[in-house]
Specification:
Oligomer: homodimer
Shape of chain A: globular
Strand content of chain A: 15-25%
Radius of gyration of chain A: 23 Å
Largest interface: A-B, 85 and 85 residues
Number of strands of chain A: 26
Largest sheet of chain A: 9 strands, mixed
Structural class of chain A: alpha/beta
Chain lengths: ~500, ~500
């Protein structure tokens, strides 16, 4: 393979040594899928050594979304991060963000590539990207995610490629890669169907920027799919029943519409429930392709999926690799600017299903900050889909921490999706269809259909006692439940 | 004109008599421009007479946005409305909404046509639309706005056309009308430039649904443009300076990008300021074409504008009508689904400038509800543009009511645009560029650059005293300023 040997082969330590304190580093990765692994892990070691020697070492970290443990966990454990965007799901990184040790920028995922292109976020000094292959003329064949990698390859000053032998070299058959030019040179995006392709099967880079390749053989390390619990199954039941009724009423066409589902147990349960329902075989236009979808696709319940990542546990990923003739024509892997593109989501009529931390009685949704202050993961792609969906659905269990927390509250403590964009809320208790309703009818429906019965009296009383207005709120008591939680560990201490 | 006489000519009273109690009525109108006038005014009379006779009469009112005084003011004065969507700016209607006499649905304006098409809001019984002409085969030539009229003509059971002789019969030269089909039959929207056209110069209706025409000769009644005050000019100065610097830094291309500006004094001042600046001649992709733009266009500072309405005072409208050869090729009037389309806004790279009621120290914006409860007008198109803009700017004076109100608060009492979508905030005090910043840096910048000096200490202290977190908030005191205002008439009673 003469192409590859023309780039210097570096050890992870040698590559990490090229990244100075204060650098802005763009890493590949959208979920653990396709995340850079060896170099960030070596970088964490380098940071520890420098810190022990009394020298500062921190970098700014830009990725597609969350990453493998070798990246966010390792760098956070080594106190090696000063700035992070646009999303994360690492326990240690979260702690540092919530203690303001790390400055975090919580962004709509579809915005990240264009913000780089427009020059709205810091210049990228080094890109570290995982690939199955890279050619001397600068074609970079990516692995299990695309994320923001094509953009960081274009804009980074220096590039390190982790060539990971673990992945199928046929992944390029799924890739559809394009970087949108900045306006005013933009044309309509030619995606007419979830499986439309518009780009190339590889990302492009100026080969002169490649300072070396690092050879690896590493798994993504995606946690396996756990079977849905009873609460998730109940939520899924309400969602599936609603969608079936919408189809019967003619408000969803007979061929159905593409679905998007967020990450996690509830979304997995919904997908499993749809798979077993009388919904016709369907497509997805989504950002994450998870374990549950492999079976649905093999059963031909799921006909095809556009996604930004293959976030699959090792056995499921191997199942895909062992059956590439089947899967390669049914999956399209796109950059997050396209997988999550608001215009395409609206055009295709995507039905979006995302998870909430809490919802309020008027239909506003908090997806990111517990008690308005403590970041969970970030908004991710939920805003890209919710704001532009054909039907925007937000789901969560009606209570948390054994009932100490009601997820239905008078006023959410952080607003990620507001009443103007949220159409459907579902919990294990039931589903509230908010279309066409003013605030007071929304409140009645959300309390009666979605709140846990133990909290309903409190919520109804809140509305009745609040000052009159188009929306009734009492600015003394709107956060009483949250304050109780912070002070007493439970939202209704006397309840 | 044999075409028109083939439809029955009705008096306004005869037309109004066709609209029963409980009906859902779709009226033309996007601002006072193109609003139905004679029939709603007669309907208000009919409601009064029925109420005096002890009979109930209320209707559901759907329009493009706000309307002429003959519509919202008249119907609200007559207590003839039970449900209203998607936006209004009438003093009496607002009062009824805030007393919950009228159920109000506050919607993103671009959503309204598709919600009708999808069957997500109530079936329309009667459409009442203003036109310059209607043909026996169902071509309806609209007047000074398009709004949601093409959709209500498609979906209403019965149609009444107000043929208004006051308007230029050449307005069709500006119109570009299309109704998007529901997914999955949607193609990319072929708008490559603010002046691209994709549709027809008329709206279409099944002529069998037309139960009559009403002949009128009525002005839109748009209030004349008032010259900008000093505060607005200061805000405009900061915005213009920022845009010039972005252009110098290469983050806005040399040819500039299309602008969108909301309604009102500040937006007018910004447009006037841009007109006098060194910004090159530019285009607009906006929802309302206001008085200030006529002069800018005649000076060839404004090269062209896509809009949903010509919201012009009578002298300015006559100036346009007297110079149709000049203006007709420079203005495109579109339905709100296209004038405000998120995908097109993002593709064209629109720079959006909208007015806020209040902003918070983390960059969340309230555009709709005073103290979280009392509706002002509605979100209108501000969300369509802000969420998808190349640069999203929100502007407001730093204080209101002679200093009793700080428009910069710890936590906004209603969130219409959140921290994920808001990039720039400007007040008379200065401008905060939030791109790339985490919450704590955003707070410092907004307080120091945008808040009135009298409130800065309070706001800094709020952040310092609030519990640690990614975002610092104290759920006991986050609304202290609002509570002070409600209880003492001023946010800082001791200040």
């Amino acid at each position: 393979m003469p192409n590859k040997t023309s780039f210097p082969v570096l050890t992870p330590d040698e590559a990490a040594a090229q990244i100075p304190h204060g650098a802005t580093v763009g890493f590949s990765g959208f979920t653990p899928a396709g995340s850079a692994k060896a170099v960030p892990e070596a970088l964490a070691q380098r940071a520890r050594a420098l810190h022990e020697a009394g020298e500062p070492f921190k970098i700014s970290v830009l990725t597609g979304a969350s990453t493998a443990s070798q990246l966010d966990d390792a760098l956070a454990d080594a106190d090696a991060v000063s700035w992070r965007a646009p999303y994360q799901s690492s326990r240690k990184m979260r702690k540092d963000i919530n203690n303001q040790q790390v400055q975090f920028l919580d962004m709509h995922l579809s915005h990240v590539p264009q913000m780089i292109e427009f020059g709205f976020i810091p210049q990228i000094d080094v890109a570290v990207v995982e690939a199955t292959d890279v050619t001397t003329d600068g074609r970079v064949y990516l692995t299990t995610s695309v994320g923001v990698t094509p953009s960081i390859l274009r804009h980074a000053d220096k590039v390190i490629v982790e060539v990971n032998r673990h992945h199928s070299t046929r992944l390029w058959e799924m890739h559809d890669i394009a970087v949108l030019p900045p306006p005013p040179q933009r044309n309509p995006i030619p995606i007419h169907h979830p499986l439309s392709k518009m780009g190339t099967p590889f990302a492009s880079v100026n080969p002169d920027k490649i300072i070396g390749i690092v050879e690896t053989d590493a798994e993504d390390g995606v946690a396996p799919f756990s079977p849905p619990d009873e609460v998730s199954e109940r939520i899924a039941g309400h969602v599936v029943e609603f969608l079936m009724n919408e189809k019967k009423a003619g408000r969803i066409p007979a061929d159905f519409l593409p679905l998007q589902a967020g990450v996690g147990n509830v979304a997995n349960a919904v997908m499993a429930g749809l798979g077993e329902s009388e919904v016709p075989p369907f497509y997805m236009y989504t950002e994450v392709y998870q374990d549950a979808l492999v079976d649905l696709m093999r059963k031909e319940r799921l006909l095809g999926a556009s996604t930004c990542s293959l976030t699959l546990s090792e056995p499921k990923l191997q199942e895909v690799y062992d059956n590439m003739d089947f899967f390669a024509s049914r999956i399209v892997l796109r950059p997050q600017e396209l997988s999550n593109n608001p215009g395409v989501v609206r055009r295709l009529g995507v039905i979006s299903i995302n998870t909430a931390i809490e919802v309020d009685i008027y239909g506003n949704v908090n997806s990111t900050h517990v008690t308005g202050t403590r970041l969970m993961n970030g908004i991710g792609g939920s805003g890209d889909f919710t704001r532009n969906a054909y039907l925007s659905m937000l789901v969560c269990p009606s209570q948390a921490k054994g009932g100490a927390i009601s997820t239905v509250v008078p006023m959410v403590s952080h607003v990620d999706h507001n009443e103007h964009s949220v159409q459907i809320i579902a919990t294990d208790q039931g589903l509230a269809d908010l279309r066409g309703l003013g605030p007071m009818e929304r409140a009645r429906r959300i309390i009666d259909h979605c709140a846990h019965p133990k909290y309903r009296d409190y919520l109804h009383r809140y509305v009745e006692d609040a000052p009159m207005g188009h929306i009734r709120h009492d600015l003394h008591t709107c956060y009483e439940l949250h304050r109780n939680l912070l002070e007493h560990g439970t939202m209704l201490p006397e309840g």
